[in-house]
Design goal:
There is one protein chain. This protein is of the alpha/beta class. It folds into 3 domains: about 70 residues, Chemotaxis Receptor Methyltransferase Cher, domain 1; about 190 residues, Rossmann fold (3-Layer(aba) Sandwich); about 160 residues, Alpha Horseshoe (Serine Threonine Protein Phosphatase 5, Tetratricopeptide repeat), CATH 1.25.40.10. The chain is built from 19 helices and 12 strands. Strand 7, helix 10 and strand 8 form a beta-alpha-beta unit. The protein is globular and about 80 Å long. It starts with a helix and ends with a helix. It binds S-adenosylmethionine (SAM).
Length: about 450
């Protein structure tokens, strides 16, 4: 009973929930702590914690230092680091070059490995860093881990995934530790932030290009995640990115965020709000006779359409989704064509307007019910809506429609990774077999990679 009251207060203050094993740890901690403080019982301890004063603040520090998990290491999650290095950071650098500002926040950074890893990546990608105004902020609820982060001293275990290029930034220090070079250390600032209680955006934490918050939400209860996500959305620039640990946002409403899928990870992106142009809705097409199974369409009817298809693809690549809709809905000679509906669906999905996207997909599928790319896009939408089982089913359907549709194998491979290892391996094997049949320079828009690069990653 008393433990329940403590657990409730802990969740309210930090967002943290205790697993069964954590509960034993919490019981022992409370027993010892009450004795140390010479308190008569839990009620007086809870009273102390509920007060809004320095004593309560200090006591919360003792609690988070005892009960949180500070595990971290350099370049944690190679796949996500790859996405950051090859996609997200280059895009942000290009986008921000005119004003030369970059604002990055590692929220729940523990002992600093994560923000320092980001600094090392940026150092590599931005040779003219000194001409830029770059903020790399690391924050955590726990003062003790922040002190360690500022000191920049690490064990070899923290560098277990680092190659020689990163190790070159470390010097041997006392007690067998390695000291991070001051040139990198001074690029990162640290600050205490309780993601749940600290109000942000504030004077420093605002207009972020990228928030990295990994392996923090796994310890949070649902309501706390929702609260913090809302605060993150307010803190991101429009089109700014949020990276969490894998699967940490499953089942979460993603208000104000859209998903971007890479082979290695899902990344969330703040939608542009408000949308400046409201595109007119597509009229639902009359249902047609089923298209013969062998007919695979998408290509053109005449030169004008081809030209417009190229324009839509260009607009889509430069993230001008409203432009794609304008072409799809006004310029194509046949507005009730597969192309018009398919491209509208793609654009709506990228704008986070999933209902309109699904309507357009249904319209496109009514014209070609064997379109693997439609099922593939639909799977993305389901994934964005956290309906992973539907996403898997739709990807399998895409494969049934076109057994050589490589993006569906790659996507399924990623979705099966956590829970269904044998299916994950099958998908990987099939994707590899199909990729090796392609010319190495074959380009996959969905993954922004050539066939040979995907093969390399899969190996
Ligand atoms: C497992 S570490 C993650 C470190 C790093 N992000 C990584 O992935 O390697 C989780 C961190 O979240 C911090 N944390 C837990 N609750 C928090 C809260 N309410 N506000 C801020 N940080 C919190 C913990 O103190 C801990 O350092």
């Amino acid at each position: 009973m008393e433990l329940d009251a403590f657990k409730g207060l802990l969740t309210q203050y930090t967002g943290l929930t205790l697993t069964d094993t954590d509960q034993d740890k919490a019981r022992k901690f409370l027993h010892n702590r009450l004795a140390e403080l010479k308190l008569t019982g839990m009620p007086s301890y809870l009273h102390r914690l509920a007060a809004n004063n320095l004593l309560a603040d200090q006591e919360w520090q003792v609690i988070v230092q005892a009960l949180t998990v500070p595990e971290s290491f350099f370049l944690r999650d190679k796949g996500q680091m790859h996405v950051l290095q090859h996609h997200i950071l280059p895009e942000l650098i290009q986008r921000n070059r005119p004003h030369r500002q970059l604002r990055i926040w590692s929220a729940g950074c523990s002992t600093g490995e994560e923000p320092y890893s980001l600094a090392l990546l940026i150092q590599k990608l931005l040779p003219d860093w000194h001409d830029w105004e770059v903020l790399i902020l690391g924050s955590d609820i726990n003062d003790k881990v922040l002190a360690k982060a500022r000191a920049g001293l690490y064990s070899r275990w923290s560098l277990r995934d680092a190659g020689p290029e990163v190790l070159a930034y470390f010097q041997p220090a006392a007690q067998g530790l390695l000291s991070l070079d001051a040139t990198i250390r001074e690029k990162v600032s640290f600050r205490r932030v309780n993601l749940l209680q600290t109000p942000f955006p504030d004077l420093e934490i605002n207009k972020m290009d990228l928030i990295v918050c990994r392996n923090v939400f796994i310890y949070f209860d649902q309501a706390a995640i929702t609260t913090v996500l809302e605060k993150f959305v307010q803190t991101l620039k429009p089109e700014g990115f949020l990276l969490t640990g894998h699967g940490e946002l499953y089942q979460q409403p993603l208000q104000g965020l859209q998903t971007r899928l890479y082979l290695e990870s899902v990344v969330y992106q703040r939608t542009i709000q408000p949308l400046t142009v409201t595109p007119p809705p597509l009229s639902a097409p009359p249902r047609r006779q089923a298209t013969p199974a062998t007919h695979v369409p998408v290509t053109t009817v005449n030169g004008a359409t081809q030209d417009n298809l190229a324009k839509m693809a260009r607009a889509y690549r430069s993230a001008d989704y409203v432009g794609v809709l304008a072409i799809a809905q006004t310029k194509l000679p046949q507005q009730d064509s597969f192309e018009a509906h398919y491209w509208s669906a793609k654009a709506f999905a990228s704008l986070g307007q999933y209902l309109s996207a699904e309507n357009s997909l249904q319209a496109a599928l009514a014209l070609n019910k064997r379109s693997a790319q439609c099922y593939y896009l639909w799977a993305h939408i389901k994934e964005a809506l956290n309906d992973i089982e539907q996403a898997k089913a739709l990807l399998n359907k895409a494969i049934v429609m076109d057994e050589k549709f490589i993006p569906a194998y790659l996507e399924l491979m990623a979705l099966y990774e956590q829970d269904e290892p044998s299916k994950h391996h099958t998908m990987r094997k099939q994707a590899l077999a199909l990729l090796t049949q392609l010319p190495p320079e074959h380009y996959f828009d969905d993954f922004a990679a050539h066939a040979h690069e995907l093969i390399q990653q899969l190996h």
